[in-house]
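Budget justification note: compute hours in this period were largely spent on complex prediction jobs such as the one shown. Inputs:
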Amino acid sequence: MSTQIQEQETETETETEQTSEHQTRRLAEKRERADMRERAEADLSDADEIVRLKIFRYDPEVEGKKDPRFDTFEVPFGKGMTVLDALIYARDHFDSSLTFRHSCRQAICGSDALFVNGRQQLGCKTQLSDLEWPVRIEPLPHAEVVKDLVVDMEHFYDQMEAVEPYFQTNELPKGELEEQRQTRENREKVKMSTRCIWCSACMSSCNIAAGDNKYLGPAAINKAYRFAMDEREGEDMKEHRLNIIEQEHGVWRCQTQFSCTVVCPKDIPLTEHIQELKREAVKSNLKFW
Amino acid sequence: MAEHYSSFEPKGTRWLLQRLTAAFLVVVLAYHFMLLHFINHAADITFAGTQVRMSQLGYFLTMVLFLIAGTFHGVNGVYNALVNQGLDGTQKTVVKWLLIVAGTLLIVQGIRVAVAMTGLF
Amino acid sequence: MSQSYDRGLIEDFGRWQEFSAGMWAWIFHKFTGWVLIGYLFTHIAVLSTATVDGATYTQTLQGLESLLLVRFLEVGLLAVAAFHILNGIRLLFVDLGVGLEAQDKAFYAALITTAAITVASIPTFLMGAF
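Corresponding output:
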């Protein structure tokens, strides 16, 4: 909303002016918040339906918020409202300290994977009408919570980097200006695997990744699949990629629980891809005998 | 680089062996249960009956193979389960060798038993 | 970001109601696997009486079989083995990449079949135990 406007003031002011400036800003913000609350009350009394959210709260930097707890918010429900819409409403109208990641709101940036009613889902892609109410919203399991619904993604990104998630090839086309073309069949083969948005829902759902911190995890293995199966990378590169994923903490740790496949918001057949890589790795090893 | 290189890739090989033994065990375990609980009731088992069965070479070999496959499948399964839980470092090496020793002892003892059951030695 | 909160393992078994079919299949397969390998060691130990002499072997086995508890344990063992076999077949198909979209149904089928086999075999197993 418009709480940011006051910050655009120029900074070349004397101290006294700054204080008063600061005070006016605070008062304005306070008024704004009061307005929002009033509006929220009006919204709530007008609404046909009210959805109750139980949101996980935790803030290590504020005394009294260090113990994790659940806060309940009541938000007016409108047709087509998603979990993310409800979270934004709650933050803007009731508690501006409520923290969660979001960006594109259309399931492409991968920032708002949350644990909603006991399942990893994208907040922006999950309709409130599809859920049981009250809706329980928690940060992703098996990751450390930084604040409220925000988890530390560092480990996930490390695993993604480990599989070299970018196109590499030793087989360049002859002509300098020639395009590196892919067959339609090959494109179809890797199509689903290219859809990953790095949201980490799969990693969070994986029971093995939870126990074995070195396990690459479904997202990284799927990324490796996307390039290992891309014929343009050539045989050398494929072997290199198989070498990475057939490490002890690579594909072999997958126990085919299908948890990742069940939660993937982009419907990537993750287990199928991991299984195919296992077979590829075995086949390429058998060739040497 | 003093890295040990071998075309025999141990991780993938164990995965494959686990599947191959599984396929064998599915058939033999079902057969074993049928034979010793439904065709011959467990309560009626005597040494004489066991001896008759074990004296047939095909049956004897099947049972020994059953023992070896079962032990590998089980012990390897236990090891995998522990690695999945994050077993690592020295502990992992210790557990690995303990399991190898336990598995080997089981196979050796099992074969001794199988030989004794033939009553030939 | 000075600190972060590790919720530990509460989200694992505390949330069993939210586990999916594949997860249950894994838990049961693991559990039955532990039972079976444990049994294999015991089994060989009991059969080792054959290395003493035939009479001891016969006596030990028939002595054990006369215990009602052993008969019930055997029914349990059958259930465990049947599930491990049936779910094992399901897993072999999963490894071959066949029928992955039906893996959850295959798990339910394995459960039902196991139950049917177990119930049907109770008379055979308890015969002459009373």
